User: Fold these one by one.
Assistant:
Number 1:
Amino acid sequence: MSERKFINKLYELILKEKELGKYGWLRGVYKNKNLSTKEFQDIWSEWWKGRLPPRTEVDMILIFEDPMEVLDKALIGRIEIEYFSTKDITKKNFYEGLQQVLAFSIFGFDGLCLWHMFSPEIEENVIVNYANTMGELISGFKLPIFYLATKILDEKELRMKCFKPSQIEEEGVEYFIDWLNRYWMNEENRNPRLKDSEIRNRRKILKMLLKIPV
């Protein structure tokens, strides 16, 4: 399974489970959302001069209803997914994806997530080393990022073993999305850049692009 196939499968399962009513607060899900569209550029240029950064594709966006209405009724989360195959493990660093997550904080996402997904063939001691090192970096700097490190056990149903934030032997997609939702519902875990009025204005652009009611 490649990174692209994993994202597609994750998206399909989330949509399927959403239709079955398994996510009480989930209102929308997007995959491979490109923010470099002309529509986004036109809206962006109304607020700021210059062009967007060159890489503005988001792996996955989850839109939850926010019952606390910290800013409004929407909680917009962004997930950066990095897939590690047996070929990738010798090429990719333990901090893969971190810079993308931090960079997208300025676009006004409420929640940030970095998800490291390891293929079934990778030995668990290798995964533990990656997960512990990345976890230490995030916790040491108190970064407002939900870090998931999981290994695929069943590619068809995406059953996974979790190594970070805590060790869990086997769960499906629904468990991890609910976990992510609960984490972001805590105001202390949200994007601190939203305290800046300019970042909140960029969030308004996101809402327009994602057709989220004001």
Note: The beta strands are 26-34, 57-65, 74-84, 111-118, 146-154, 159-164, 168-171.
Number 2:
Amino acid sequence: MKKQIIWWKDKKLMAGFILVLSSFVLGTYGKFLFIVKFYEPVKRITGVSIYVFSWILFFAGVFLVGWETVKIMQQKIHHHVKDTAKKAYNHAKGLPRKGYEIARDFHKKSVKKIKSIQK
């Protein structure tokens, strides 16, 4: 059985998360430079360059986060299914006994009513 992943202790996952966040910050700054300083050619080229670089960071971060997140999701699904199956089994195990008791009580009530009517 594989060891469970703790997301804040996983270096790849944290690096990917930081890359994604920094790409959003750089992308916003690059758009800001491109839009606000549109008539200054150096600022416009710098804004586009920063914006393109932010996309590169974003895809690198998604790549790093992606595989680690898939592993975490698989582990959570496995544990959730295992726990749910155990709960369902324990619940289903008691159903025949419960059904028997309900039927027995229903029979006793109906016999009691029939006896009370016949008297």
Note: The chain has a mean pLDDT of 80.
Number 3:
Amino acid sequence: MSVMTIKTILAACLLTAGTGAFLTMMTIMGRPGTAGDPGKGRRLHKVLGWAYVALLIPLAYLGLGFVKQMGDGMSTRGVFHLVLAGTLLALVLLKVLIVRVFRGFLKQAPALGMTLFALTLVIFLITAGFFLLQTVAP
């Protein structure tokens, strides 16, 4: 199995965890009066969020290998991916710090979560989506 295939599988899992965390918190915060336990939803959001972080680490590591290998010959799509991925890493770190350490900024956590989801989707589509289009689609 190629490294690109492994990265695509990990990226799909990352997108799934991110989507689950996003939808869980959106349901808790954006649908008042829904049946269910908000504590259970927050725990699910926490588990999916840490799964997201755990999947992001090997993806970043494998991505750095590609950057090292490509050097200055990187495509425009690759440069976009690199810049957006760096932004994603910074925002994940910021959100974890806010939730864990700087609780006074907790009001910004929902906006960061929505930004992380949107950025994850964009990065997935411009890279893993493109790779799948090139390899799987007829």
Note: Residues 3-135 form one domain.
Number 4:
Amino acid sequence: MGQATFIASGVLPLVFSANPVYPGKTTIYSGSVSGQTEGGDEYVYEKGVPYVLIELRFENLSASDFDGGFNYSTKVQTPDTQSLVNWYINVFGAARQPFTYRDPFGGEHSVSISGDRLDFALSDYGLYNGQIVLKKKLG
């Protein structure tokens, strides 16, 4: 089994030292909206592209993976290092550009991070628990 990795052009990849906990959770959204008319007829229309949300749950993620080498005041990562916080703020950032997620089984997925925050908690000295939700468009 390989290591979970985030890859984007022009930056050092983020290779996690701990893989997500399995089994994971995947939720598929159709991209359509349904409802019912006053007469009781059901209708469905396409609102957007179908997509999948992939939840990566980490337990005991090391501090070096989480924010090691990241300076919060300047938002600069130490050269030749990479961290999740740097990836979220500077690599993915406000542009919400897709990147490649290489799962531990060798699959590659074009994804973006879903939502506007990362939710991690300090579980022990230098260890973090939390999840990253990735969004993968289908089609």
Note: Residues 75 and 90 are 8 Å apart (CA to CA).
